Amino acid sequence: MRNAYFDQLDSIVDELVDMTHVVKVAVSLATQALLTADAEIAEKVISDDAAIDAARERVEERSFELLALQQPVASDLRMLVAALRMVADLERMGDLSVHVAKVARLRVPQVAVPAEIVPTIERMATVAEKMVDTVAGIIAERDVEGARQLEEDDEEMDQLRRSSFRLMLDDSWPHGVEPAVDIALLGRYYERIADHAVSLARRVVYLVTGETVTTVDHL
Amino acid sequence: MRNAYFDQLDSIVDELVDMTHVVKVAVSLATQALLTADAEIAEKVISDDAAIDAARERVEERSFELLALQQPVASDLRMLVAALRMVADLERMGDLSVHVAKVARLRVPQVAVPAEIVPTIERMATVAEKMVDTVAGIIAERDVEGARQLEEDDEEMDQLRRSSFRLMLDDSWPHGVEPAVDIALLGRYYERIADHAVSLARRVVYLVTGETVTTVDHL
């Protein structure tokens, strides 16, 4: 028979999975705000981030309670410490979506992204959302195989970022400094969202296999 | 009489303080590499980051050992979980110094930063280093007062970043896109180093006072 302790462990995992869904919506809406110069959607992303912060607090409180009251050992201890880190990754992904939304808001009524960069940013957003989806599955199923897919997606993200730099730094770039600065920072935000997705997945791999986690942050 | 358990807790705090010193050197050398276009110093920052990663692993292993074997409760439990987070902040500060060094290396033999932006970047680096120093003191002494100073320094960092944007986005900016993109990203890196310093300090405040920690990330 299941007891309250295992139910609480499960509820933490459920909350982490729920958070990935909320983060995916944040990434998607932030990108929509960015590419359509929609201030209302941008504001929504910014204000909805409070829900992600609140979810982080709930997971932290529950994890602490279990650590303090149940004194878990071995794999449960590892899981709870991993949960505390994963929730920090998810919160950062929410913050980074807010940053994208703030760039959008800053340039309204103009679209911050020049037309020839739109496909690159769109693809970055698609890859980021796909990675968040994959992470949700990895957390829910403890599916270590999915983590490999994420590394590939992360590689595509890096290539997209390099291609945005090539366009901006080409002599034929007609848009001047401001859009270039926006795109450099936007690219950094999407790339960091991807990095946090990889980091989340690696924490699950560590839980399942004991294999060491390393931090990701390419430039 | 002190026992091995308290010695191990102390050794974790000592290691965190040592890491802040190593991070400060990384920030300082990365800035030197940046402002003098010194590829050798840049390489040193990049390769020395392995020592910060290794320190992170040591702190993580020791914290896990204590969590698993000693099953600490209340304040010791909070301290160990805080240590796991603080070490993640410190590792990121090292990574961000590496990013600064990589921008430096990318532009050698040229200096990535145009002359009129040098004072701003220099000041950003000085503020960042000062903040890392303050954090070392806060961790070592559990001095909650020092945390207030950090919030002020962080505000100065934000102002420096805004001032760099004003210079780059002015019509009279003569340097084109590439240095602007470099400075936008460099500003982001120094700002994130400052944010992590504030985050570290808030974790100590939380340990000492029980006051809630919130994440910092301005744009």
UniProtKB/TrEMBL annotation, chains A, B:
Coiled coil: none
GO annotations of cellular component type: cytoplasm
Biological process according to GO: intracellular phosphate ion homeostasis; negative regulation of phosphate metabolic process; phosphate ion transport
Main subcellular localisation: cytoplasm
PhoU domain sequence ranges: 17-103, 121-204
Domain of life: Bacteria
Alphabetical keyword list: Cytoplasm, Phosphate transport, Transport
InterPro entries according to UniProt: PhoU, PhoU_dom
Compartments where found: Cytoplasm
Complexes and interactors: Homodimer.
Function field: Plays a role in the regulation of phosphate uptake.
Family of this protein: Belongs to the PhoU family.
NCBIfam families on file: phoU_full (TIGR02135)
Stated name of the protein: Phosphate-specific transport system accessory protein PhoU
